[in-house]
Design a protein that fits this description.
Elements (H helix, E strand, L loop, with lengths): L2 H8 L13 H12 L5 H8 L3 H14 L17 E9 L4 H9 L4 E6 L6 E7 L2 H12 L5 E8 L16
Antiparallel strand pairs: 1-3, 1-4, 2-3
Helix pairs in contact: 3-4
Amino acid sequence: MNKNNRKTLKLMNNNGEYKNRPDPLDCKMIGLLQKDGRMSNTAMAQKLGISEYTVRTRLKKILESGIIRIVAVGNPIDLGFEISGNLKIRIDLKKTEQVVAELSKIDELIWIALTTGGIDIDVDFAVRSMKELQELIFNKISKIEGVLSTETSLMVDLIKEKNDYGTAWD
């Protein structure tokens, strides 16, 4: 689990509800940034009919909370990674914390999630070659104590990627 996810979880109370959930204006700001992460505070203020100061202070609060991050999103294949895909990992559930901690240290893993169902952990990866994929699976992941098995799927083409899904409070 990365730092930003931990920050977001701290925003929840014991009932799983957000303590400081974004209000409708925050949600509109988040929606605009999901469409254009480079939008200036001035442009956002104009679009929303509020002051630039209001945008700046609210955006600072939203970013510090960990609810959103502003990053450049790219297609791994277009960025030169020959092989990108997904690993389904079955683990000894008694060792979940140790396994997740070790997986989090692996640079090639770009997304890690605990899941329910037949698979315990779902990860996405990007590597430069089959040699790196072999190294990732056989020398890094499979050697982690508590990993029972892995199932690999390779991405052959990115069909859809949606980053402007708004918030659950819209």
